[in-house]
Amino acid sequence: MLALYRLLLQLYPAGYRHEYEDEMIAVFQEARACTEANEPFVRAAFCFREIYGLLRGALHERVRFSADSTPFAARRFTMRSEFRFPKSTMLLMLIILGGVILAIEKAKSIAASLPHTNPLLPPIHPLPPTFAQAVGLMFAVVYAGAIVGWVVLFALRRSGLHRLEDMDTSASQK
Amino acid sequence: MNALPLTEPVLLILLSLAELPRHGYSILQDVESISGGRVRLSTGTLYGALRRLLEDGWIEQFEEEESPRGRRAYRLTAAGRRNLLLEVDRMKHLTKLASFRVARKEI
Predict the structure, then answer these.
(1) Could you say which of A16, A60, B62, B95 would form a disulfide bridge with A12 (CB–CB 3.0 to 4.6 Å)?
(2) Pairing mode of beta strands B22-23, B72-76
(3) What is the DSSP pairing of strand B59-63 with strand B72-76?
(4) Among the ranges given (A112-126, B59-73, B92-106), the one the predictor scored with the smallest mean pLDDT
(5) Whole domain around residue A6: which residue ranges?
(6) Residue of chain B with shortest Cα separation from A19
(7) Starting at the edge strand that comes first in sequence, how are the strands of the sheet with B72-76 ordered?
(8) Boundary-marking domain end, from A14, A45, A76
(9) Is A14 part of a structural domain of the chain?
(10) For position B33, which CATH number holds?
(11) φ, ψ at A11 (rounded to 5°)
(12) Alpha carbon of B102: minimum distance to chain A alpha carbons (Å)
């Protein structure tokens, strides 16, 4: 049971373990020693209570720890002076680039394997768009434009640029 | 831990420490005793509550001089005692109100 207790303590954040691990183990051992003489049902209830308490406590501390380390409000409204470019973004960009290059190479190999003129297929002529297609296309373009505009405005707001409008520069000019 | 009311385990821990400073296992025993065996805290629950109370300045920890291992004990701070009294007053008011309302209904 002590091994399991130690194992479950690993679920807590390191800072919490550093502060309380030894003390919790000592208290647990004292409490367990007191239940040794009791009936098996009481001992089982004790074990269940301890396991449940550790799991619940670890979850609570993890949530608190993550909330403290990345405070949403601060992250949302605090302006950053430095340029941030996470390494994970570089990795994702490299993966996407690799995927695009692979797709191009695959397309080239497929194109090379096919004859230039396929006698089984008639030549493809683009059909003139119907009214419904034209309306759909127009909506798609408008929505795409709106999304791009919203993204630009959101980026500007995140950058804090809009706050420059509120600055009073008249005092410095005088 | 600014918000009252307190949860029952936290209230019992504070009541336990209100009498005298205690170490972890002593708190566990005392909480079980003062609740008539109804509340049995696990070590996970106890230390979660102690951590929050320490962080909010309601209790403080110190090393017991008499203990051979120099184990840590906990005691109420002045702010903790004040907040506990506020909670007790709130509960008294609630109890009085409940008694009054229930008695009036019976009439």
Answers:
(1) A16
(2) antiparallel
(3) antiparallel
(4) A112-126
(5) 2-76
(6) B51
(7) B22-23, B72-76, B59-63
(8) A76
(9) yes
(10) 1.10.10.10
(11) -75, -20
(12) 36
Q: Return the beta strands (E) in A34-138 as ranges.
A: none
Most A-contacting residue of B10, B47, B54 (CB-CB within 10 A), to test interface? B47
Residue A174: predicted pLDDT: 47
How many whole angstroms separate alpha carbon B20 and alpha carbon B22? 6
The position carrying tokens 């493809």 is A124
Contacts of residue A160, Cβ cutoff 8 Å, sequence gap at least 6: A79
Chain B: closest CA distance from residue A43 (Å): 13
**H or E element, residue A143:** helix A131-159
Best mutation target, B10, B30, B43, B51, to test chain A (most A CBs within 10 A): B43
User: Structure pTM?
Assistant: 0.59
Model confidence pLDDT, tens digit, residues B58-84: 999 988 776 656 678 999 999 999 999
B73, B23 Cβ separation under 8 angstroms: yes
Q: Which residue has the tokens 């406590």?
A: A57
Whether residue A68 lies inside any domain: the answer is: yes
Residue B23, strand partner residues: B73
Residue A141 lies in a domain: yes
